[in-house]
Amino acid sequence: MKWLTISELRRKLNLPETTVRRYIQEYGAYIQQKKQGHMIVVAPDSVEVIREIRKCHIDHGMTKEQVEEYLANRHTMSLVIAQDDKEKGVTVAEVLDDMQKMKKLISKLVEENMKLRNELEQRDRKLEEKIESIHQLLESSQNQKKKTWWKWFK
Description:
Blueprint: E1 4-5, H1 6-13, H2 17-26, E2 33-36, E3 39-42, H3 47-58, H4 64-74, E4 78-83, E5 86-91, H5 92-146
Antiparallel strand pairs: 1-3, 2-3, 4-5
């Protein structure tokens, strides 16, 4: 998919460049866009959205708020996500769904982490007890060695 520059959009839509820029700035949540170097480029799918914005303002005399409401009812907000030098347009709903899945996964991982932590604490307590008992045995054996051999029989 070849992304369009502002100049290409202007020619394609027969609009002033300032108008195209204003629409992108004001209604950017509904227009798939990204920065490419110092330029803003727009996905070809968003050309129709810009046409609708223009019709709302010119043909129907809508205010910015009315256009926002119109777009919110007809289009999903879009995001462009870059991953491994590949870009993908996604909707806010898809992002929210992914976030819910991540939240569940994080909860599960936290639960497993707590379980492991408890198991490690129990293991550590047992090891400390064993070390203490070994230490006591060593002390008692050293005390017995200090006795001279004839005192053992008394």
